[in-house]
Amino acid sequence: MANTAKPDLRPANPRFSSGPCAKRPGWTLEALGDAALGRSHRAKVGKSKLQQAIDDTRSVLGVPADYRIGIVPASDTGAVEMAMWSLLGARGTDVVAWESFGAGWVTDAVKQLKLDDVRVLEAPYGEIVDFAEVDFDRDVVFTWNGTTSGVRMPNGDAIPADRQGLTICDATSAAFAQDLPFDKLDVVTFSWQKVLGGEAAHGMLILSPRAVERLESYKPAWPLPKIFRLTSGGKLIEGIFKGETINTPSMLCVEDYLDALAWAKSIGGLKGLKARADANLAVIERFVEANDWLGFLAKTPETRSNTSVCLQFTDPSIVALSDDAQAAFAKGVVATLEKEGVALDIGAYRDAPPGLRIWAGATVEASDLEALMPWLAYAYEAQRSTLAQAA
User: Fold this and answer.
1) DSSP 3-state assignment of 182?
2) For labeling, which of 4, 61, 232, 263 is most exposed (least CB within 10 Å)?
3) pTM for the predicted model, two decimal places
4) Is the pLDDT of residue 1 over 80?
């Protein structure tokens, strides 16, 4: 058994959580000094900042001018459920899932909304659904990047431009790190606390003209709570998409999001953000290639996420353990890394296979990931020694 020495170099920032994610490099509380605290979000200063958040989102992501962007309650979950409750039921629905959050949207469609005509297409962790089986003349609900599996859509080629149904895309761990083909997407949602490292509880809802047309021509059979209502008298509530939020937002969180967007623009916008995430993934890829005891949960490189990077221990002696023993081994590795203060919150999601989940989005520095990699080997060997002693 190898005796891996404790590395000398430590990450300057050990925060590799997949949400809330690391703040941008150089962030301090002073960045929020201009927040409109103690002021109404409906006052001129509040509305101005909310509108700026919408405008800067459009600029950085490249959202088409005729798409609406709104700030909504309850993070990405609120945005997705607002879309599902408001839009679905007009035609048949396909719900696509290959990890836990996609599975949550399946539950919403089947058990909560109880749609009359719904098909569920699922793939196990590490794989992705064959989109050739998806019927885009029906409404389709899917995640772009599986946060808990590290599996992402390689591109939007499978989505036809002449589709009849709407595409509702949960893009919360993809936005600002991956290309989102807005011409193929009718609803796009995300939250501030992912790739830009913003604060939680606020969601973003982006609607295509086709989605707006559905909202104004279709009334769901079920009642809608106030925080889900996007229309009034059969017309879109345009104020929601001009910074007039449905409920009171945190102006401190708004200021933090504005700061993150300003940083994004300063490093080259979406191109710069994607480059940083890709460089971070490359650090992990090089380490995995050099160490045969570790592998990606994503089965193919084309679907490998550059944000929520999910890893498994592939050593045959670990794979041969029971599920509970594998989970205990992974938890031991995570605990060692946290005790050493070199990696925080990198355990696999509770519903995912045992392993590690390392956030590699744009706010993470490649140098910190470089410093972390030898610590993975150290913690792995330490846990193997513990396992051998217990045998």
Assistant:
1) helix
2) 232
3) 0.97
4) no
